[in-house]
Known about the structure:
Largest sheet: 5 strands, mixed
CATH architecture of the largest domain: 3-Layer(aba) Sandwich
Number of helices: 14
Strand content: 15-25%
CATH superfamily of the largest domain: Periplasmic binding protein-like II
Number of domains: 2
CATH topology of the largest domain: D-Maltodextrin-Binding Protein, domain 2
Amino acid sequence: MDRKKIVACLTALLLAGCSRPNRIVVGSKNFTEQILLGEILAQQIERRLGVTVERKLNLGGTLLAHEALISGAIDLYPEYTGTALTAVLKQPVLRDPDAVLANVRSAYAEKWRLKWTDPLGFNDTFAMVVRGETARENKLATISDAARLRSWKMGAGYEFKQRPDGLDGLLQTYSLRMDGASVTMDLGLLYSALQSRQVDLIAANSTDGMLSVLDVVVLQDDKHYFPPYQCAPIVRNETLTRYPRLSEALAEIAGRLTDATMRQLNHAIDGEHRSPSQVATDWLHANLGRP
């Protein structure tokens, strides 16, 4: 999304939320996991604080969600530590999860007075995925195996081509050969493109629901190219001051969402076609009880 569109979107968001007494605005980026997490955060806040929560989910990519937060159009949204480190802060890749979290916490507090709360428990790293038959026929287990084998027709989301922790660095690190330009598409189309043989390798996410049901193989990142991507809510400090119980409400869900849990929840939406709202409600009831 170009700068003019981002400014237009933020202006609309600010006008829509410029007067919101006793109301918290929860945002999210524009893919299944983010929308689900935004709904979980919104419902948890409603359960514990008893305030009205306005949902501005499915906003767009990282830059738009970040700008919405620092402008005050939203009060909080879930973000990933590796994304914040490389795509937002433009810092070099770090491999240690604790170091990445410490760096983004310090920088966000200093630059924008934003607080990274405790991580939710899972690491949604990039996953290089091939069809199961391709992996078996060629004995593929790692990205290095794929690089030695042949060139690949790759499918990826739009951000992956532009991110500093994305396509260019991956190709350089592994000397991975491409069969033409990568095919960019919405994240929700990656698996269907792989299954229909439009592409042979996709840059997906390790918590994708489809990984639990399709005959596919995630290639091991044996050179540890991708940084940690722990997910945690980022909150405006003034919102935490305005609602002192908000920190406690968010702490109740910290550490409770594992990688396997996220794959199951994501599949409930993408594979079973359940609504994010209902999936969030069921998870909260099962793990924190009814309000």
